[in-house]
Amino acid sequence: MLAPQESAALASVVGQPTRATIPLNKLAPEAALRRLELAIVRRLEGFLHGDHLGLLPGPGSDANDARMYRPGEDDVRRIDWAVTARTTIPYVRDTIADRELEVWGLLDVTPSMNWGTEGVTKRDLGIAAIATIGFLSQKMGDRFGGYVMRPDSVRRLPARSGRSALYGLLRTLLTEPFVPDHAPGGMALADAVEQLSRHQRRRGLRVVVSDFLTPGDHELDPNVEPNWERSMRRLGVRNQVLAVEVVDKREIEFPDVGDMLIRDPETDFERYVNTGDTGARARMDAASAAQRERIRIALRRAGVGHIQLRTDRDWVQDIARFVLAYRRVASLLHTPPQGVEK
Amino acid sequence: MVIPLLVAAYIWASRRKNRRGMRFTNTSMLDVVIPKQSQWRRHLAVALSLLSLVTLTAAFARPKTTVDVPRERATVVLVLDASLSMQATDVKPTRLEAAKAAATSFVRTLPEKYNVAVVSMAGNASVLVPPTQAHNTVETAINSIKLQESTAIGEGIATAMRALEQAPKDPAHPNSIAPGAIVLLSDGSNTSGRSPLQAAAEAGKAKVPIYTIAYGSENGYVDLDGKRQPVPVDHAQMAQIAKLSGGQTFSAASLDELKTVYKNIGSAVGYEKAQREVTARFAGYGLAFALLAALGAISLGAKWP
Fold first, then answer.
1. Cα dist. A30→A33, A34, A101, A206, B264 in Å?
2. What is residue B223's predicted lDDT score, i.e. its pLDDT?
3. Sign of the four-CA dihedral B286, B292, B295, B299
4. Which residues of B touch A251 (CB under 8 A)?
């Protein structure tokens, strides 16, 4: 007897799933994640006092520039004696304000995400990724909000701070109604990313969870930009962006299931395919690998962090490994374009 | 009536957008990598199974059809004189009874394959039994012949020729007359109708020999309305009829020689329309279609090693 979650995932292979495949309490090991810290390398702006480096001067722990002491305005205790001794003019050292982090997660729930062959649908794996990153960035005062990308509209879930608010957000994501197959609406990932970067002007962390597949796009050349690359780059101008690419095992290793009618949940593609053909499967696997390589290169070009999660692997482990390596490379990776403050 | 519905349902199901199948997300790549494969095997299997359903249903209804049954065309036409003169008792018990007995025994000696027709001849001649292989029917018909007035031997021969035409047709030559012979049992005196010699000549032209058997003696008589009427047998005319048509004449004594009649008839096979049940044929087709459909379905689903 299968667990209800697993049977829901199996059902997603032939029809649209009817329920979530990961329960709320299994989304992320909250306690274990407290030891990890997601490196935030971009400067933030906000109202509140937080744990992250801000963009503007203010009361904080990090030293900024030295400036001339203004009698009556500045505290004598803040005089930088080393600079004063060299210049013989009294100087004070400013500090950068410590600000709270605002995280916005964009979750793709288009029908192609309602699919998963390994006991978990891609959509629920994406929710789990948002949960894991959410718990990683639960420092004091940090807020977490969500955008849900449906084929016809983008739904905004307001950003709030605290772990109970994060649980509320995750529950809302899990109970978000499933988009039926071939639902009308031409929302592309690029539109949703544009909307996110237009609406949320305050600098922070952005997490884009999708499979980064465009229906009908069969380009394999990595030098050709996918249509979401430009908007991802624009999002990365002011924000630190993490792209979570959700992949199913069977998207990389094409299954051998005999002669099969294969339908696309989004386009009207419908074809009998002899999946027993070894040569065809090898070609398909090679094409998928090239496609994933193109996505990886495009994300790298856009200057965003890239995590690939697979439905047949432990996402917490994958994210933890990413976070550990990310500490060293994040400042390089997220170098803003010329002329933009860090 | 269900069959067109099934066909329509199949077409509808294959056109349907929402049919069951494996969902797959990366079909844009699949579209490029794997060429579209033709679906004729699938449609063929469905068509074959539908055909087998049709034929098996038809077989269940036990269909009948008119088929060409091969039949021997060779025909012996027995022409029995049923005139009042055959009442004469110079041949025991009467001329007619003797002729009937001779005809019956002749029919019994005939091999089963020959067709026999019976023509009764009096003032006018009529075909009692068209050419048939059911010799029992022929015997019954012979025994039911009743006496009538006057004798028309020429008419009898002409009617016998018409009876021959009713024999099964040869498909290659529908107008040719069947190989046959006429056995004329009579006392020989023509009293009405066309000339027997002319009819005999026509029969000879059609290569139908007439074998004549004369019954009676020179001093035969019948009692009609209390008047005694002599009815001598006309041996000469009977012999002439036989000679003109290329046959032989026999006496009542030499009946065993009648076997030469059917020995000389050539054998020819004709065809006849008959209603036959063709359930087996339909069932066979249905089975064949079902087997092919099953093989097609297996070839679709099975992974050959």
1. 5, 7, 19, 20, 115
2. 77
3. negative
4. 25-26
pLDDT tens digits for range A24-34: 888 888 888 88
Mean confidence (pLDDT) of chain B: 78
State pTM to two decimals.
0.63
The whole-angstrom distance between B53's CA and the closest CA on chain A is: 25
User: B25 and A274: CB-CB below 8 Å?
Assistant: no
| Residues of B in Cβ contact (< 8 Å) with A214 | 28
C-beta of residue B88 within 8 angstroms of C-beta of residue B222: yes
How do residues B107-137 score in pLDDT, each as one tens digit? 887 777 778 888 888 877 888 888 888 888 8
Judged by CB atoms closer than 8 Å, whether chains meet at B34 and A280 is answered as yes
With residues binned 3-state (H G I as helix, E B as strand, rest as coil), the percentages for chain A, rounded to 5, are 35, 25, 40
Under 8 Å CB-to-CB from A164, ≥6 apart: which residues?
A: none
- Asked if A168 contacts A127 with a C-beta cutoff of 8 angstroms, the reply is no
Counting residues of chain A whose pLDDT is more than 70, the rounded percentage is 97
- CB distance A264–B27 less than 8 Å? yes
Other CB atoms within 10 A of residue B76 CB: 25
Nearest to B86 by CA among B146, B31, B10: B146
Q: Which ipTM score applies to this complex? A: 0.72
Asked if A203 and A238 touch (Cβ cutoff 8 Å), the reply is yes
Distance CA A227, CA B112 (A): 93
Dist CA A10 CA B26 (whole Å): 18
Residue pLDDT, tens place only, B224-269: 777 887 777 777 888 888 888 888 777 766 666 666 666 666 565 5
Q: Prior bond to B93 cis, omega within 30? A: yes
Q: Which of B22, B32, B300 sits opposite A287 (nearest CB)?
A: B32
CB contacts, 8 Å: B37 with chain A? 271-274
